[in-house]
């Protein structure tokens, strides 16, 4: 039945995540145990070991709860199905991330105003804006206003870059 | 000096034009971000932290921050009522009845009862704060390291257990926050922990970086992933023509009870480590629904269901300030950011704060009275302006949030690498939202974890490594006992049902997430 496959898929990604959390927790615990230093009650090594141990235990419990079929889980899955039209897209978040990375790299070379202006136009586009003129106006006015108020009024350094101000 | 003398001198400070301006900026900004869905007071204050580097005036800064927190509580109700999208998680309960009232053309009555209720609750609870703060601070001077350890543990566990849908998910979020907290050089011995050989992590991960990552970057990525269900423009309901339509005599009669009861619930719950305003707003809603004579009207726009939760939500904020100012223990994400702000100014909230900087404390408390009046004046007459704010196109809004987020991290750390760490945490935050993990416990773990570790080691130093120090003092033992109770409370309905031999179909108690 097609109705069954949909909750199954959702359920699987949660299980995979729980397993991944367990593995990451295990690796961190391993690195905490192997670290050098005083392993006493007052030493610096106790907290990392305690925290990562708790991580492993919580992740294990989470995994077990995900693997155990419960009526609640089916209910949740059914509730998830109702949100079917909201199925997340991956393109837009990836686009936003790419724009962010470009922004951060360009920040120190091109300066705040130019990089922020480009970033605003691109991101508004990725997020579904279809009004280019409005975006461009905002993208020019907003960064210049921020730049001037931060550097002139608040004395906070922002990279000027290629923009002669 | 007695409380009234202190408070009077606090008013003397706040009523200076310069500080009135700070208060006005704070409440305006707070209402603005409260109205906008997606950004809350925690993120706003975190983004403003770099600005405070250049303001060498802690009093003005904290007056502004308190205004933001308060304003966000007021502004959240507008979005809930007109849009049915709570701007703040503490306004979720308001949306239930408020939106129904608006749909029936009673938007102005709903907005009015929310604003006036917030004012009443804010004023009463600030009065309670003025009366309680100093006695609690006095009491807190007798607290020892072991007590602080137990208190921090209680605050963390209580928030984690009460917030969100599943205890295990909440605990995983909390543990992630604790993990972020130990990264970097250990303050007592200088040993590097979880730095993986990089220089960038030696200083630890800054609170600003984590909050911007989780609340700004993570939130925007989450919104982006659900773009298709997101219209570019949103059309809030019309608040109705000006002039007529505010509260009728009947509305007043039905509202004042819930206002007072909401305050009575909100203040203590804010003061207790229960995660701010979410729990009391839902308690107030449930209680009003339960005791109302016209229960059939609930779900169709009962004014009691707006008045109660809104009052509770504002009263909780003054409550949150009690442990924050007197003990230095934050009980909500926003309080945690405010604690970070205190540390920027080299101020340590706690019992000594009342002795060392009384003018700051009392100016802050006096500013709450002033802020309440300003907000009442700002909200009702200017409601059309705030409706305009709701119409900012989403793509531009989120692009702007990301610009401010990047700017905030860069300005406070001066390093592009830190910006990338914030982006990385943002990706994790997106994953947490996607897989339904609560965010607030991460912040509390990050702030309270190092505090807890320090007090633990301090307590053991005093006792020469004797672990019984945590159970021999009655106060410490009681606090640790409450930790266990907090873990069990969400399962109480199920346990009771099982004890009575019924089937266990009752779900665990849950509350919406704090932000």
Automatic annotation (TrEMBL), chain A:
Give residue ranges for domain DUF1468.
17-159
The protein's superkingdom reads Bacteria
Q: Which Pfam families match?
A: TctB
The cross-references to InterPro entries, in alphabetical order and at most eight, read: DUF1468
* Transmembrane annotation, as ranges: 45-67, 136-158
Report keywords, A-Z. Answer: Membrane, Transmembrane, Transmembrane helix
Protein's name according to its UniProt entry: Tripartite tricarboxylate transporter TctB family protein
From TrEMBL, chain B:
The DUF112 domain, residue ranges? 20-444
User: Where are the membrane-spanning stretches?
Assistant: 20-49, 109-133, 145-164, 171-192, 204-224, 320-345, 360-383, 395-413, 419-449, 470-492
Classification via Pfam families: TctA
InterPro entries per the UniProt record, alphabetical: DUF112_TM
Transcription is among the record's keywords: no
The organism's superkingdom is given as Bacteria
Keyword annotations for this protein, in alphabetical order, are: Membrane, Transmembrane, Transmembrane helix
Please name the PANTHER family in this protein's record. TRICARBOXYLIC TRANSPORT PROTEIN
Query: How is this protein named in the record?
Result: Tripartite tricarboxylate transporter permease
